[in-house]
Amino acid sequence: MGKVTVITSGKGGTGKSTLTAGIGAALVRRGNRVLVIDCDAGMRGIDLMLGVSGELVFDIADIVNGNCSPANAIYPCKTVPELYILPAPQNAHDDVSPYIMKQLVKVLEKYYDHILIDCPAGIGTGFESAVAAAQRAVLVANAEPLALRGSDKVRNKLGQMMIPEIRLVINRFNERRFRKLGAFPDLDAVIDRVGARLLGIVPEDHRAASAAQKGEPIEGRYKAVNAFDRIAARLDGADIPLEL
Questions:
Q1: Closest Cα to residue 7, out of 219, 233, 199, 217?
Q2: Tell me, what's the pLDDT at 94?
Q3: How far apart are the C-alpha atoms of 112 and 35, rounded to whole Å?
């Protein structure tokens, strides 16, 4: 049975979806078969990042409505073998209910080592559906006050939904800008502000972000790739020391 991880954030713009795509590819490099489920109805983007947007015919709403089988709505990422995507609906009103999401993931987890669920930012529409089937959560934040706004609400909501493991990823970290901003004395203060254990720190990497926007694989000599690999290893159960 695959491990199901929801990836969420307190607000939009944290790089959550790029992180999801990067971790997915990193888990595949570790020999895993990985499914990414995009739950951001009306705002889907993972299909573009994984280079399959031009091939989409069906999405998760089509499965729920009986228009196709789950296999017909799951697309392989051609640049990363063993990485697959189940796209979100194009229309926001086609949100999948939490109950249906839980039942669907229960069927799909038999066929994958990991399922990553890309959750809409915040705790609005779609949040409960995305979280319903999760066994653990990754909360994505940037190390600045505005980006951290809402992170505590997301963490509390995850706790209320009985998610037993909530981990933090500090994304797009730029040490020079962090120190110049001076909003926090150090990264420990950021971690304390969120109130979740640290899973990893991903450095700001414009080349990796650009690759994701163009549907190119996030691999090779990008600064972010090493961080993705270390996070993936921890999600896979490896004992990898944290770097602050």
A1: 199
A2: 67
A3: 7
Two tokens, residue 6: 């929801």
Distance CA 130, CA 8 (A): 9
Q: How far apart are CA 98 and CA 77, in angstroms?
A: 26
Beta-carbon contacts of 226 under 8 Å, excluding residues fewer than 6 positions away, are none
Prediction pTM value: 0.94
Q: Are the beta carbons of 137 and 194 closer than 8 angstroms?
A: no
Spatial distance between the Cα atoms of 14 and 62, rounded to a whole number of angstroms: 29
Give 233's Cβ-side CA count (13 Å radius). 12
Whole-number average pLDDT of the chain:
90
Positive or negative: CA dihedral 176, 182, 186, 190 = negative
H or E segment at 62? helix 60-64
pLDDT tens digits along 30-88: 999 999 999 987 677 788 888 888 888 999 989 988 999 999 999 999 889 999 999 98
Answer yes or no: are the C-beta atoms of 181 and 144 closer than 8 Å. Answer: yes
H/E segment holding residue 156: helix 151-160
Buried b (16+ CB within 10 A) or exposed e, 182-208: eebeebeebbebbebebbbbbbbbeeb
137's enclosing H/E stretch is: strand 136-141
- The confidence score (pLDDT) of residue 203 equals 94
